[in-house]
């Protein structure tokens, strides 16, 4: 047996492991909105976001300290600040505010545009020019999402929809900058240091928010808080970045196309929501458009 032959099984196992890890990340992300709704059963929106960030930062800091991970070079701090502002603070806060008036199924379809938004930000950041097919599919996806939100809101965009679209922008910026940083350091280091960098702000925000917003601890509320802090914010991104590193960004991102549909399933199973006939159709339409962009030349 040659050295090349002996290496083949190892490569196959690595690819399979990466796919499983990335899929676990998508599964974790798909539970974020239902868990946020549960968390709002015990906390106000500002308290939930601030406390979740503190808990996630403590978990991340513990891992970084235990593994003796070196502090990133100063030239990466600005990029980490963008990641923190988009993924740690901006997206959780805006989506939590949106979920006070929007259903999780509605929010899932709107945020299903996130891969497209991220691709646009990445194109602007890197200067690469995707093919016309890519942009046609991206535009079609945007039309589907906007048409769905307008139809669901009775012909006009509500405040919750504005929060969701704002969440798309800040999260796409955070993902884009995080993807750039992940080329020079492990992906979980990126989210770990972004969480730690935001810890002073998160602690201050928790103290203020908890003093003005009522807290009524329930089993659902605490479970929701723990999941969005540990499951979605840290562990989900940890396995996602590890899987992405093994199988590549393109293949991993295709797995994330299932996220809106998974969230729709969770919204029915965990929250008892009733889906409108348009919601699954809109979700499928968005997924088809995103799938085309993933296959188009970039």
Can you describe what's shown?
This protein is mainly alpha-helical. Helices cover 80% and strands 0% of the residues. It is built from 13 helices and no strands. α4 packs antiparallel against α8 (159-181) and α7 runs antiparallel to α13. The longest helix is centred in the C-terminal third of the chain and has 29 residues, at 219-247.
Summarize this structure as a short list of keywords or feature phrases.
13 helices; disordered N terminus; 80% helix; single chain; mainly alpha; 298 residues
Low-pLDDT runs: 1-15
Summed up, the helix count is: 13
Structural class: mainly alpha
Measured as a percent range, the helix fraction is over 70%
Molecular shape:
globular
Mean pLDDT value? 84
Let me know the number of strands: 0
Give a quick account of the main beta sheet: strands, pairing sense, barrel closure: none
Computed CA radius of gyration, to the nearest angstrom: 19 Å
Order of helices and strands: HHHHHHHHHHHHH
Euclidean distance between termini CA atoms: 39 Å
Note the beta-strand portion: under 5%
């Amino acid at each position: 047996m040659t050295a090349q032959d002996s290496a083949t099984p190892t490569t196959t196992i690595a690819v399979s492991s990466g796919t499983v890890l990335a899929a676990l990340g998508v599964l974790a992300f798909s539970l974020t909105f239902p868990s946020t709704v549960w968390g709002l059963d015990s906390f106000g929106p500002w308290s939930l976001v601030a406390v979740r960030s503190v808990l996630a930062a403590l978990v991340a800091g513990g891992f970084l300290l235990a593994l003796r991970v070196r502090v990133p070079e100063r030239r990466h701090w600005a990029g980490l600040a963008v990641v923190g502002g988009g993924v740690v603070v901006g997206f959780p806060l805006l989506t939590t505010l949106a979920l006070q008036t929007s259903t999780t199924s509605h929010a899932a379809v709107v945020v299903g545009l996130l891969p497209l938004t991220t691709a646009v930000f990445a194109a602007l950041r890197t200067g690469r020019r995707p093919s016309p097919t890519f942009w046609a599919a991206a535009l079609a996806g945007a039309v589907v999402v906007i048409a769905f939100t307008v139809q669901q809101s009775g012909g006009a965009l509500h405040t919750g929809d504005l929060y969701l679209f704002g969440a798309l922008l800040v999260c796409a910026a955070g993902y884009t900058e995080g993807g750039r940083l992940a080329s020079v350091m492990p992906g979980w280091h990126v989210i770990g240091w972004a969480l730690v960098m935001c810890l002073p702000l998160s602690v201050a925000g928790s103290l203020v928010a908890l003093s003005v917003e009522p807290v009524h601890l329930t089993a659902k509320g605490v479970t929701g808080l723990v999941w969005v802090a540990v499951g979605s914010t840290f562990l989900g991104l940890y396995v996602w970045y590890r899987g992405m590193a093994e199988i590549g960004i393109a293949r991993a991102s295709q797995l994330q196309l299932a996220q809106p549909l998974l969230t729709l399933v969770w919204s029915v199973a965990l929250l008892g929501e009733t889906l409108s006939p348009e919601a699954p159709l809109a979700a499928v339409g968005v997924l088809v458009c995103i799938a085309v962009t993933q296959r188009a030349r970039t």
